[in-house]
Amino acid sequence: MDYGKYVFKQQKQQSQNKNQSKKTDVKTIKITYKIGEHDLDIRRNQAIRFAKDGHPLKISLQLR
Question: Which comes out higher in pLDDT, residue 21 or 48?
């Protein structure tokens, strides 16, 4: 076995592992300062569900 074949097999294995790995999506929740109570409850429930599923969470507060 020559070195070129070995390197090729290693690169091919690395690319297959990369394709099979699960990518995590950052879940974003947008909140404004005028949000209603019911809407805030829905956003809170979404955040809890995303956290239980293991997704990273980003919460953005929009101020105008």
Answer: 48
Helix (H) or strand (E) holding 50: helix 37-53
Q: What is the mean pLDDT of residues 45-62?
A: 93
Cβ proximity of 58 and 28 under 8 Å: yes
Q: Distance (Å, rounded) from C-alpha 44 to C-alpha 51? A: 11
Tokens 């969470």 correspond to: 57
| Amino acid identity, position 29 | I
Give the containing element (helix H, strand E) for 14.
Answer: helix 3-20
Paired tokens of 8: 């090729």
Under the banding of pLDDT at 50, 70 and 90, the label for residue 47 is: very high
